[in-house]
Amino acid sequence: MTFLLNAWPEWGPIFQSAFARHLPDQSFSMDPATVDPDSVRYLMTWALPKDLERYRNLEVLFSTGAGIDQFPPERLPPKARLVRMVETGLTRMMQEFVTMAVLALHRDVPAYLEQQSRRDWRPLPLRPAWERRVGIMGLGEMGAAALETLRPFGFSLRGWSRSLREIKDVVCFAGQEELPAFLSGCDILVCLLPLTDQTRGILSAKAFAALPKGAGLVQVGRGAHADQQALLDALNSGQLSGAFIDVTTPEPLPADHPFWAHPRVILTPHIASDTLAEPAALAAIDNIRRHRAGQPMPGLVDRTRGY
Ligand code: NDP
Ligand code: OXD
What is the CATH topology of the domain spanning 89-267? Predict the structure, then answer.
């Protein structure tokens, strides 16, 4: 029963050592050329290997990332469980990024960068955090954690998810029918949704129009959540006053794309967060133990929901 890891070579010794310490009976390999394909029960990867079909006895397919949208559904082995990454490093780094971006939008950093480029010394009206409404789309591992780091600043917090959540001091909305009401109260909108058939293109012209005039956007979900032309139009018309854009379609973003030079866009190359090797190994080990014991695995994907 082998755990096969398809990841950066530097992850190898870290996983090897974690397995040796915590699950010594689990055989581990990073070398598909020497491993017996029939022995592979667990595979961890970002992209599906071209020859995935050779692992006929695969029981659990682990994503190295929080998302699983990079796996083409038609290529997924029908019987294998699918587990996305849930680990504290990934969540904490997302908390840092979202908090940084929300604070920067709250304190008008895009507008001040633009003013600086024109040598324009001009204070803009100050608004305290308790008069700013911050809304998070997606209240899962990342979204719920981001709310917790925003909370101490005193923002008025709201969230939107598929099923209704109850989170202390957060106004919660759920489902398509409550989306307009949610959006209408977001001075700063954060997208932390998974990419599914239901969420593709959700940041549409209609969604931007539903936001209060001059809202800010933190786009850290997936590029395909946004209609990029509608996003540009909203920025150009002033409907959006600024955007942190960490995810785009395609990635990398072509050099001639208007986001690069847009005065109200702060663009980052999909670095809001990233999986760390050590906690990823520990998450895998915990899940293998649970799988062996027939217990629920954190991050188990519901294939019918797509996340
Ligand atoms: P989770 O699965 O824990 O949470 C997903 C949340 O989205 C849930 O609250 C879920 O609702 C909600 N949701 C899903 N579908 C819909 C829908 N159709 N309508 C409304 N709400 C919906 O995921 P994570 O929090 O771990 O990760 C979220 C995403 O963050 C990842 O899929 C990825 O796209 C992105 N990400 C980006 C990174 C980056 O570096 N930019 C790094 C890591 C993640 P419910 O609560 O009802 O289930
Ligand atoms: C992820 C990501 O899904 O880094 O983990 O985007």
Answer: Rossmann fold (3.40.50)
